[in-house]
Design brief:
heterodimer, A: about 260 residues, mainly alpha, 2 domains, 13 helices, about 0% strand, globular, B: about 130 residues, about 80% helix, disordered C terminus
Chain lengths: ~260, ~130
């Protein structure tokens, strides 16, 4: 009787307080990551980097466990993570980081941000089309969709839907974009020193080149929190520009070449 | 009051999102074009305007800065709901395209960063 009641209470709380539960869980994860960072790596690996890696590993585990598409958030009782880490609160928090932006630094990097955005769209697209070609794809619609997926995981399906690509091709383009975001989150803190990612200007170049908002957000958060707003400022234009040029200009170019 | 800061942040975010949608419609794109970036610019402008009038109270700042500080935990929650399984199991084409694109772009960050250092750097300043 007592145990059954306790179980019912636990179930009710988990069901009613999803977002609050997510706050507590993420807090615990951050606390554990801070302890690992301090005692096992002597502070050499950022606590946020460890937390993000742990979260990605948990997301993989959640996918294995449930077969769903939303990682750990598909586990019953953990749906609050989807709200806490969803696009609404993510964008709200990103905008808030602009409060500390140094306007002079941001202005100096304006032109470079535009160059970075252009390169960050053309280069991944060309890579995606080239790799798809080498794997035997020859029709312009599939090639363009797979190239677009390499830009970001939103540009891929938007382009695929606009051009009428097949569902497996769209799925592959999303997978490429998600892998890109995961790679950027994971490897940015490791390569930051080698690519000079330690000032607002290079952070703006980074945001424009990497594009994927979740990847840039996670990667910079794990590297140096002060750089986040500069990277986010350029990255936020990336998906829109990709959705603009991939199904139009880029498709016409691919069709002319293929 | 902290809520003034959070409300200001909300207003900027909503206006930015609306402008991004409008830009998307104008450009015939099925996506929000730079909504977050426009919202950030609005917030920067609003901060400057309030500061000039001496209205940037500690309470108002707190209402914005709390959300800036919550950014990393929110990103951790975001990471926890990525479809990592699909990304990992996407097959060799997905892996080759993803790894090559990311590696190339990391390299370009270094190149662009250096090119800029040459222009703005200390050489002329002695």
């Amino acid at each position: 009787m007592g145990a059954a009641t306790m179980g019912e209470i636990a179930q009710k709380i988990v069901a009613d307080q999803g977002l609050v539960l997510a706050f507590a869980l993420v807090g615990a994860l951050m606390w554990g990551s801070a302890a690992i960072s301090r005692y096992l790596t002597a502070g050499r690996i950022h606590a946020s980097a460890i937390a993000i890696l742990a979260a990605l590993a948990l997301a993989w585990w959640g996918g294995v466990l449930t077969g769903g598409k939303k990682g750990l958030a598909d586990v019953p009782g953990l749906a609050g993570l989807a709200l806490m880490g969803g696009a609404m609160l993510r964008d709200f928090a990103i905008v808030a980081t602009a409060f500390e932006v140094d306007v002079i630094e941001a202005r100096k990097a304006g032109l470079m941000g535009v160059i970075a955005l252009a390169l960050g769209t053309v280069v991944p697209f060309a890579v995606g089309v080239g790799v798809a070609w080498s794997f035997g794809y020859r029709d312009a619609v599939s090639l363009t969709t797979l190239g677009a997926g390499t830009v970001t995981y939103i540009v891929g399906p938007v382009t695929g839907a606009a051009l009428g690509a097949s569902s497996p091709v769209i799925a592959l383009s999303i997978a490429t974009g998600v892998l890109k975001a995961v790679l950027v989150m994971t490897f940015t803190p490791m390569v930051a020193r080698f690519i000079g990612l330690d000032n607002p200007r290079s952070a703006m170049a980074f945001g424009g080149l990497m594009g994927t908002v979740s990847g840039v957000a996670g990667g910079l958060a794990a590297t140096d929190q002060r750089l986040v707003p500069y990277g986010a400022l350029t990255a936020t234009f990336h998906t829109g520009i990709g959705c603009l040029v991939c199904p139009s200009i880029f498709f016409l170019i691919v069709r002319a070449l293929a | 009051m902290a809520i003034y800061g959070t409300a200001l942040l909300a207003l900027c975010t909503l206006l930015g999102a609306a402008l991004g949608e409008l830009l998307g419609v104008a450009l015939h794109v099925k996506a929000n074009v730079g909504g977050v970036g426009l919202a950030m610019l609005l917030l920067i402008a609003a901060k400057g305007w309030l500061a000039r009038r001496g209205k940037l109270t500690p309470g108002l700042r707190l209402g914005v800065e709390f959300w800036a500080l919550m950014y990393i935990p929110i990103v951790v929650a975001m990471a926890a709901q990525q479809n990592v399984l699909a990304a990992v199991e996407g097959g060799p084409m997905v892996v080759i395209a993803g790894v090559t694109a990311v590696a190339l772009c990391f390299g370009l960050v270094a190149v662009l960063g250096r090119a800029l250092d040459g222009r703005h750097g200390g050489r002329n300043d002695g």
